[in-house]
Model the fold of this input.
Amino acid sequence: MAITLREVTRENYEDICELEVADDQKRHLSSNIESLLESKYYDTLVPRGIYYGDEPVGFIMGERTSESKVEIFRFMIDIDYQKKGYGRAALEVAIAEIRQLEGVSEIQICYHPDNEVAKQLYFKLGFKEVGMDEAGEDMLAVLSV
Done:
């Protein structure tokens, strides 16, 4: 599966903003519009469009929070592309890119404890649950790289 992560630019931001998740997933996730806006005010945030060929299928955003740690805190696949392997492929690409960053030894990702699909996906990629986040709202999982 030819998945790539692309910079969100003036040319493609509208396509990224139009991506949606299922109604029952919306309460667990900030909108892509909100995420992109946030990234304009915090220059440490790295937003990327997830593409299958030239088709935008998702969105991911992370931040290097220390010399040794990257946190992925926004990750979504459009409802039309879910359960087809795009999410796993996108995370594999993201993990490979993060592994290229000098000094990084850990990737963190959070998900709602009721989100069994996310939990299983992250588990299959080697993430290990370490407990609830500081706010006590999301499960924190870690991958050593």
